[in-house]
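As a representative case, the lines below give one protein's residues and fold tokens.
***
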Amino acid sequence: MNDESEWYQGEVDEKGVADGLGIYILPGELITIGHRINDKLHGQMVTIYDDGMRKVGAFLNGKCEGKQIGTFPDGQVEIEMFHNGQ
């Protein structure tokens, strides 16, 4: 985490880098709960955006991987498929 407004609480490696299960908060924008490896998103994640949208999905080495399900505040659901972030 480089920006002073960012906040992370969770597992870290011996150098203090996010590595494992944790919660990441970017005030006024989003909250992400899930796993990181060497400060990169890795594994299952849940992200809640400031506007109320929620996304659930997986990451592999910092890139979206597989199914991402977004739920908008009005209940509309969006499903996207990713491979290597695309």
